[in-house]
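Pipeline run #58 for the internal structure catalog. This entry was flagged by the ingest filter as a single-chain record with no existing model, so it goes straight to prediction. Upstream metadata was stripped on purpose; only the residue string is passed forward. Reviewer on rotation: M.T. Logging verbosity set to normal.
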Amino acid sequence: MTLLNYYEQSPEENTFIEVVADVTHRCNMTCKNCYIPNRDIPDMNIERLIDCVSRFPKRTMIRIIGAEPTMRKDLPQLIRRVKSAGHKVCLLTNGLRLSSERYCKELKDHGLRHVYISMNGVDNDDWYEEIDELRCASKKVSALRNSRKMNFVIDIGCILVRGLNDSAPTEMIRLL
């Protein structure tokens, strides 16, 4: 099978155990390391996504990403529909909107059980300002607390910047 033929496979031929769905290019942050420079691209069509994942032959982990997927007003419904199609969902987020317990509960009520939160500055606003251009430590810590209250499976990502947040792993263990 050639690489071209591989990408022409139908959803019924999906062999992946995890699939990434990049659902928006909008974001509520301006991180220096962002890989999405263009924020003016329309959001992913949810009907097409659901049609695709509904045809997968086996249960798959659908990783919902974007620039920031919580920018979508229909995110709770998207989660519910992916779950209704028989799949697991992991939300990859900067966590700012998860600082609202009410929003976390809404996502949980729609079936979310697994989150991945970017924590580049751990609980240090100076690190966040340097890396992510926003003093947001309290919101990030609230997002962790709320995710824990909801009994989400929590994964944490942290970009290390030599000479700035080298001690982030140790600080993250302390925070946790």
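catalog note: The beta strands are 18-22, 61-65, 88-93, 114-118, 153-157.
catalog note: Residues 137-149 form the longest helix (13 residues).
status: ready for reviewer M.T.
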